Each structure stands twice: as structure tokens, then as C-alpha cells.
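Q&A log
Question type: sequence-to-structure
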Amino acid sequence: MPDEVIVAPSTQAIPPGLSSGVNVVATGALNTNDVLHFGFASAVADSGVTQPTFDLDLYQSYPGTRIVNRDTPWTATNVLVNYTATGPTAFALVLQGGGTPVGARHGTAFGYHAEVTRTSLVHCAYGTRRTGLGTVVQYITPELVALIFAAAEDAWLIPFMFGLYWQTLDTETLCGKGPPPLPNVDFTTLPAALTTTKQIFDAYAWPYFCECVPGTPPPTGFPRPVIPEPPGLPATPIFPCSDIDPCGALVAIQKQLAAISQTLGSNLELTTLLQRYGLPFAYISGATHQISASGSFQVSRLVGVKVVVTGAPGDLKTFTGVPEYISDLGWISLVTGDGLMDEVRLTRAEQFWFPKLMPLAMSLGIGLREGVTVSVQELEAEP
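Response status: OK
Response body:
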């Protein structure tokens, strides 16, 4: 059965068409495989009209491509045309006399009606856009989060949005399409990665900042997101405000901020160490040592070394490579108070070495073939 009435049964004029325009009865939008049903109960030609038919038409917009042209006799009754959309289509239902001679066909259709059977629900058939509320780029503030989730009557989600505070939200991008799907939410996903939290936030922010582009018939909007509150969720803490001792409340806030600052400082220090030593992305040049015999020198918290051969015997074998491979130049080693950690053979005229354990080394050992001299430059982590 049709589930959407486009035109309720009504009396419609059939104008001469080619000479004086047409009767665009209704417009709308179809999605792929939607079925449009339209027709009339009976029709009567105006007095003096001798031509036997008129045009019962369906256009892809109007003016535009005519999809259905039904040359219909005035004597026809209970006419029904069914059209199945092959793709998204903006349509117009049109009545006109049409044909030749120009202006020779006009009259009235009785019981004209149109309905659509939707095979799938189409949200925002004409597109989406910003509502114009606020600026294009918004800061995700505690106030904005509270406003959005309180409006959706899901205020219990507010504490889980903490990790998003002071990030930015591009509402132009958000509203350029429909809202993102909601992830499955339970006690394991709520404290999950920020990408999951952001997906939940965007879904709730969409109806606040975005809307369907209006059209005829009015488009179907997206349903508002709903996440049932998981059972057993602890109640949101309530912080009483007393006007008796505001100074005490401020001192408590200062202590909490100091504790947070200390924790953030520790996290920053740890992150910096991991970044500089676990995943170094830059280095700076340190002290340079000229070595002409086997030996060692002390080092501290290096990320690597650069070794340049400044002299070598002329009888050393070389092999093809970029740069050229030189045999039997010597070795470099990492040493701690407990012994050898790592070593590498010198094989190039200029060679960098960034071993993983370099920051733990207490000294750098050099073993050179007779006649080989090198320059060793310490490479320190970027501050």
C-alpha cells in the first residue's frame, strides 16, 4: 500500500498547455525503487473542445525531462499510472492539453490523486546544512557539552566527554552529511579511545548544529540519537555550593588544580623522554672526538653517533654500494659498567649509528685497524 500521500483526491484544471502554460500539480523527490502512483477518476473537456485526448505527464523537475507522457482520452475513467524510480529523482506531476493544433485541448480532471510507496526511508532528501547557530568552528567547552546533552535528555553522558574539552568542532564539515552512526555503548566503550567519544559527541551535536535542506514535500529528518543509560552507572557527583565558606571552596579547587598540574607535568616529562629516546625524531650535534687508536671515551644519554673516516690505508678492499663499502675499518661498541651492550662494524667513509640501547651507554668503544683514523661526533636528543 502507498505510505505517503502527495496529492489527495482533488479537482484539477487541464490548461491548453503549449499555448498558455501547464498545471504543475505537485513536486517531490523519489529514491531508487520508490514507486509513484498517480491518476484520476474522470475528466471532462471544456465546451467546444473537439480533440479526444490530453496529456497526463510526469517530469523530472519542470521544466525538464518528461519521464511519462500519457496521451489520455477524455472518456477514460479510473486511470492509474505507476512509475518506479531508477535512481534519486526530483519529480513534477503535470497536467496539460498539449498536442496540436495549439490550444485545442483543455478541460478538468476529477479525483486527481498521487501517492508514493517508499521502499526505503530517505533522510534529508534535498541535502543537509548548518542551522546558522554559532560560528563555523566551535570550541568544545564544558558549557557546550552540557547544553547539547541536556537538550537530548542524556545528561548522564556529559562526564564521559571530558577528554574532548577545548578541542575544536568544524560544524561545516559536520553538517555536510548526515550524523555519524552511534557505536555500541557500554561500560567498556564509554572510557574508550577519544575517536569513539568523538563519534558519540558528533552524533549528538548534529541535530543541534545541523538540519535538512527544506523542500516540497518536507524532507524526513534524521532521528535523534538515543543511548540507553547502562544499568549500574554511578550517579553523577553533586558538588554543593555554600555561601558560608567560599574561601574554603576556592582553596579546595586550588589544591585540585595543583594536583592536576603536577600530574600533567609528570606526563609531559615521561612523554618527552619516550619521544626523544624511544622514538627520536631529531637530534643535535654534540662533542667531537678524534680517534687514531683503539680505546674508549665516556658518553651520557646519547641517541646516536656520527663516524667519519679521516684516514685509512690504501690497500683496503672496497665493494659496490651507495656509499661504497669498505672492509676491515674497525668496530664501534656500546659499553656499560656491566659490559658490552651492542656493537657495529665500520663499513663506510661516513656512517651514522642509532642503536636502541644508546641512551643507556656509559662509554663508547672504538677498535680500529692500524692506519685508520676517525672523527666521532656525539648526537644528542633534541631538547
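Response note: The chain has a mean pLDDT of 85.
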